Amino acid sequence: MIKKLLVALPLTLALAAPSFAQDFPERAMRIVHGFGAGGNADTVSRIMAEAISADLGEPVVVESRPGAGGTVASGYVASEAPDGYTMQLLVGGHAVAAALYNELPYDSVNDFTFLSTLGQFPFFVAARAGEYESISALIEAARAEPGSIVIGHSGVGSTQHLTGELLGLQTGAEFIHVPYKGGAAASTALMGGEVNVIIDTGTVISGQAEAGVYDILAVTSAERWPDAPDVPTLNETVAPGFDVVSWTGLGAPAGVPDDVVEILSTSIGKALAQPDVQEKIAALGAAPGGSTSEELKALIERQIAVWSEVIEAAGIERR
Amino acid sequence: MIDQFLLGLGVVLQPHILMYAFIGVFIGQLIGVLPGIGAITAISLLLPVTFYLDATTSMIMLAGIYYGSQYGGSIASILLNLPGTPSSVVTCLEGYPLSKSNRGGLALFVAALSSFAGGMVGVAILVLAAIPMTIIALRFGAPEYAMLVILGLLAASLIGTGSQIRSFAMVVLGIALGLVGADQTTGYYRFVAIPELADGISLVSLAMGLFGVSEIIRNAAVRSTPGRVMSIRMRDVIPTRAEARTLGLPILRGSSIGSFFGALPGTGAAIASFMAYAIEKRVSRTPEKFGTGHLPGLAGPESANNAAAQTGFIPTLTLGIPGDAVMALIIGALILNGIIPGPRLMVDQPELFWGVIASFFVGNIILLLINIPLIRLWVLLLRIPYQKLYPVIIVMICVGVYSHRTSVTDVVLTLAFGILGYVMKNYRFEPAPVLLGFVLGPLLEDNFRRAMLIYRGDFTVFVTRPISAILVTCSVVLVVFAIRSSIKARRKTARVLS
Amino acid sequence: MQGVDQVQPSIAKRASSGGVLLLIGLIILVVAWNYPVGKLTQMGPGFIPRVVGFVICALAAAIIAIDLSAPSHARGEKMHWRGLIFVSAAILIFASVVDRVGLVPSMFLAVAVSMLADFDARPLNILVYATLATLGGWLLFVVALELPIPAFWR
Q1: In this complex, do A64 and C150 lie within 8 Å of one another by their Cβ atoms?
Q2: How many domains does chain B contain in total?
Q3: Interchain CB distance below 8 Å, A38 and B140
Q4: Nearest chain C alpha carbon to B398
Q5: Which is nearest to A135 in space by CA: A215, A221, A242?
Q6: Domains contained in chain A, CATH given
Q7: How far, in Å, CA of A118 to CA of A121, rounded?
Q8: What is the pLDDT of residue A227?
């Protein structure tokens, strides 16, 4: 109510969603996610909720069930009714969790109906300005004196952490990986001089990079990233074949009827085609883009395999 | 700097921006009163609204919610013993006893006044010293945080109202509770009996349980407590001249402590208010009055946490680095508005930067103006007989805790901590040190282990890094003083007894 | 000074407060015993839990010693069983149904059950008051704040 009143205040609001009769949906839907209210996952959920709700004419509630790297939410969603009314915002962590946790109460692939990706984003390798000439110089330094380069990351078992471990494994450089509570804390440590390098998303790094505080040494995607065409990839420099791209997507419990999947996928596709939705997703550092259900499933299966290897090779404690 | 501040004032005093500043602080304050529903819920609720506003206005409104909810949190703590944040735990210590002895109005007035003063000092620091404070904050690495926490724990072991050893035991119990969940350094699961515990015990559950629920258990079935007849005449709400005189120094000390700690990302308000309380108790000539509704013990921490709420924006504004989850939300709103927060914000967006800072100035004045008249309303609330009040409080706690992470486990844990708090009190253990240990314990462990990891097990970092060395010295001095004064006290009692 | 002839609580009672703490310390030690400990410069996840466990046990022992030697005031206050039972019941009922039946019915049940703690509550009073409180809660949490919790389950 308060929200409605406030939204109505600036008269900029586009009005009245068209609602037309169909079998699905006939009541409110919800998007569950496993992260804190207000975080990026929450914001993306809300963006999608708004767009889907406007399209399908029923409200979409966003529900945050944080815990254990999103696995609490996944466990919850996997056991909900597969009627299309419960969706889940999935992130790259879904694949990491499958590799990292010993006993998940669900099967990360077979217990879900995957709907579509929403966007993909790479990680950037950043250091304080002027400290390393290039990514090759960094790797050289690390090789010359093993253990002299400290990488700050956003938490044990985060995609950022595993990406750093993978970089070490592929280049043969020995890094010290230091966990912080989230990317912001790791970035503070980089600025304060406590760590030498961080690997994180554009949202964490680009502000400092634009201000000339950080140098972005490399990007983790296989191809150069369109938003940062000057940044070399790890693939083309120190680690041929290196390709880490994280993603967000929407899923649902396994067994959602095909016609309902069809309705939802179409609606997600329409949402992703809207310029303002694209803009908001891009603002969060991701390249907006949908996919088919199969593509998302294949992506997740591929990443589970990669992360399992990294976790094994780096000797990270499984939970 | 004053010029730029005036530029900012010019931005805020535009009617529509002023209106959103008002909406922000007002909603923040109202939501802050609701137990368990804090700034995060409020901000994420209003986040979609910011899609329709420009960046400056959004940020002014969201920031208003943040520090407005600090004011609101004190109200529930004072009147009902319901702390929603670690800093309002300290407010409970003196505020609730005052309320119980029918001086809740006075407590609210002093809290509002100290909050205002603290907030203003914080804003002044923000205007005059944002950059130097940023530089100091960046010097705080893992060794410094570890030593800071040790200093905090030492200072605050003096916090309990009962015996020293008992309150120390409760600090350690708090540390133990803080261990639950995935270990930050290795990811190893500790005491995770059910998956819901993997992220640890929720602070809201712990605080609501130990303070709120235990108090309800104690009072619910007490026959016929009449509604407290509290005076709502303004005369009885304002402190007497003698009382007012005791408040100046605590507010000054609290504001300085709060301003300093607030600027350190991630620690801020909680440490500040515990430290402020410990220091007031330490310098007081009547330390025995603490815990019974002693005004300086309320004023110091209140001004500290509100000063911290303002200087907490320093890293957010100067570096684009959010100091806590709430700041992260606010930054998120900026990003959605197409502004990338970073060190260039101040240069590229001076109207936003200074507008937001000026809005704190205006916002604090608004808060004071709406708070003073509201005191009478809050006090009227206490005229409702407790038998009618407590079922509603229970429901508010349940909904608040549940909404926090949509977790049934959290609700059950709140009850468990309520029972724990009740039993503890019967055994003369105080709940406040538990919260302290719970908040500081993980900080200590994480930073100590991080320091060992980065400096490869070299202990000398704690004394070779200058800030860390200063903190170590402070701790040592504190311990020496404590030992000396306890020896003195023992001699004294020995003399009295003999 | 305290009258020497005042009846002292039994030894078991006086030791109980430290005793409970000792039990907590022991539980921590037992649960955490297998966690990797590491060493001071390279702590494993089990280091601090073990230290904390030992410290709690030591403090508990000291508290027992003090309580046993000090005269009198180790007396616990009487239990508020009625409040304890009904407050617990109310919260547990809320927790067990809120995921399934939604916010409004859960609030109603929680208010109604918790009111049973009051000696003077009559059934009609409870019904009316619980309805009013639920209505207020609905207005606050569902209508005004739009908390993302379903008001009624579907």
Answers
A1: no
A2: 1
A3: no
A4: C91
A5: A215
A6: 24-121+245-312 (3.40.190.150), 124-243 (3.40.190.10)
A7: 10
A8: 85
Count CB neighbours of B487 within 10 A.
Answer: 10
Total CB pairs under 8 A between chain A and C: 15
Evaluate the CA torsion angle A72, A76, A82, A84 in order and state its sign.
negative
- Beta-carbon contacts below 8 Å between B and C: 192
Give the range of the structural domain holding residue B152, as residue numbers without chain letter: 2-497
Q: Beta strands B189-190 and A175-179: pairing type?
A: unpaired
User: Which contiguous run of DSSP H or E holds residue A197?
Assistant: strand A197-200
Interface of A with C (CB under 8 A): 1-3, 27-28, 30, 61-64
How far is Cα A242 from Cα B123, in angstroms, rounded to an integer? 48
Q: Which residues pair with A112 in a beta bridge?
A: A253
A129, A233, A288, A289 from A225: Cα distances, Å: 21, 8, 13, 14
Q: Which one of A15, A43, A175, A204 would you mutate to disrupt binding with B, by most B Cβ within 10 Å of its Cβ?
A: A43
Q: What is the mean pLDDT of each run of 10 residues along chain A (319 residues)?
A: 64 38 76 82 88 89 82 89 92 90 88 93 94 94 92 90 93 92 89 93 88 94 91 93 92 92 92 91 87 92 92 84
Cα–Cα nearest to B59, from B345, B404, B367 = B345
Chain A residues in contact with B329 (beta carbon < 8 A): 37-39
Chains touching B (3+ CB pairs < 8 Å): A, C
List CB contacts (< 8 A) between C59 and chain B: 165, 168-169, 172
- What is the DSSP code (8-state) at residue A234? T
DSSP 8-state class, residue A193: T
Reported ipTM: the value is 0.91
